[in-house]
Amino acid sequence: xxxxxxxxxxxxxxxxxxxxxxxxVFQVIPGDPIRIMLGPDAxxxxxxxxxxxxxxxxxxxxxxxxxIGGVAKxxxxxxxxxxxxxxxxxxxxxxxxxxxALMSVIIVAIIAIPLGVFMAKRQNKPSDVVFxxxxxxxxxxxxxxxxxxxxxxxxxxxxxxxxSGYVPWSISVKGALGSLLLPAITIAIxxxxxxxxxxxNTVIEQLQLDYVRTIRSKGITEKYxxxxxxxxxxxxxxxxxxxxxxxxxxxxxxxxxxxxxxxxIGRLLxxxxxxxxxxxxxxxxxxITVVVVLVNFFVxxxxxxxxxxxxxx
Length: 313
What we know:
single chain, MetI-like fold, 12 helices, about 325 residues
């Protein structure tokens, strides 16, 4: 079995297990979605009729088969609170969350990677010690607290930033940047700290290997050695960390969207949990899972392309 086929099988197994866990958990959580939909004054006949319409009178394995079959076709069911298809609600909020996640990842990449490489060359010097210490602080800062600090010291003083709400890209690029930049920085700072330390340590490790000393002995410039060989070899393991960081970014949007009042999927998830809108919660959880698993799948495939030895294992 080839490496790619093994990863595809693992992808399918992971999604299946997550769907089973998600479906099972919502069967034991207190709260009857039928009663929520009909209200407290509904009689038993109305409850039984709606249960039959929604297929909730069937055995659990049949309910799961019906639900997962719909999920495979993009049908996540009907929201109890909004009386709209779950997929439609997710698509409406998708641009906000995707824009926020991509902006956060871009900020992490353009700051952490160059800074990690630069500090690896200045190992144990005062600037390296300072930045390494700052990363410890960056990893420990809670995102909601950091978001409030940025609102207080930047959002309230610089007119460019918006401290609440979202301006679509189609209306104003400047407005969209203003509404997303502070939340993106809030999410990115802890991940910058993680990526910086990993890049720095990986580059330092590469610089100590024999092949680097061999290349240097040939009189090749230090800049060429660093960017042509060391950085290229260092980025291969960094890709693995990128998949984990992307998952952290997606999780971070759930809290940060609340802090900044962004109408994204994370905020929708929190509100749907509060209203016990189980179909909507299930749909959002499955969406987030699919995104994270697919990103890690493509990272694994890219990793095997960059390092063909992986395909031989």
